Amino acid sequence: FSEKVSYEFEVLTDAGEAPILYCDQCDYCVNVDDIKTYKEGEDCPICGKDKLKSAMASEVGNVFDLGTKYTKAFELTINDEKGKKIYPIMGCYGIGISRTMGVLVEKFHDERGIMWPVTVSPFQLHLVSLNTNDEAVVARTEALYKKLTERGIEVLYDDRAEAGAGQKLADADLLGIPYRAIVSAKTGDKVELKKRNEKEGKLVSVEELISELG
Hints:
The two termini are about 45 Å apart. The chain is an alpha+beta fold. The protein is built from 5 helices and 14 strands. It has helices spanning about 70-75, 95-105, 135-150, 165-175, 205-214; strands at about 5-10, 20, 30, 55-65, 80, 85, 90-95, 110, 115, 125-130, 155-160, 180-185, 190-195, 200-205. Strands 1, 2, 3, 4 and 7 form a 5-stranded antiparallel beta sheet that branches. A 5-stranded mixed beta sheet has the order 11-10-12-13-14, sandwiched between helices. The chain folds into 2 domains: about 5-105, no CATH class; about 125-214, Rossmann fold (3-Layer(aba) Sandwich), CATH 3.40.50.800. A hairpin with a 7-residue loop joins β12 (about 180-185) and β13 (about 190-195). It is elongated.
């Protein structure tokens, strides 16, 4: 690490900016622009269990050596095992937040929009109220929203009166929250629940909805 070696964390994507060679077995990869030692089809130099494959990738994180640049600048010292004062070597551990978001969208989308993985989605549920001119529908949706948030479920609530059903559903697909729940005059005392990555939805009770969302 102290010999000015840097490590990159790459995600395979056709929209990537860097050509790499990688191993499916141990996840080793190397940027071919930086290191031209290895070639596609050769045995993995780390595990030897698979052949190196080529692909495009995007860097989302890195680890590199800062040396003693900042420890010397700030006169930061420690005692080594012999009691001698030395400048410690610093490492930089970085993740590109905006780059990671972009790569996630590249990896998880379809022709209608984003499909956020549950682990990184800004909300768990996209709650859509249709028939907003119907007071009973509005009341049911408001009650459901309150119940969900009280259970700690993160909800994006679309209660726009000026938007039609088609626009609301298209926007839900575009935004890509993992679950979508529709409350309308047709759903009665139930809700229509649909996963963003599935084609068909289903009618469920409020308790079934809460159970599904965990």
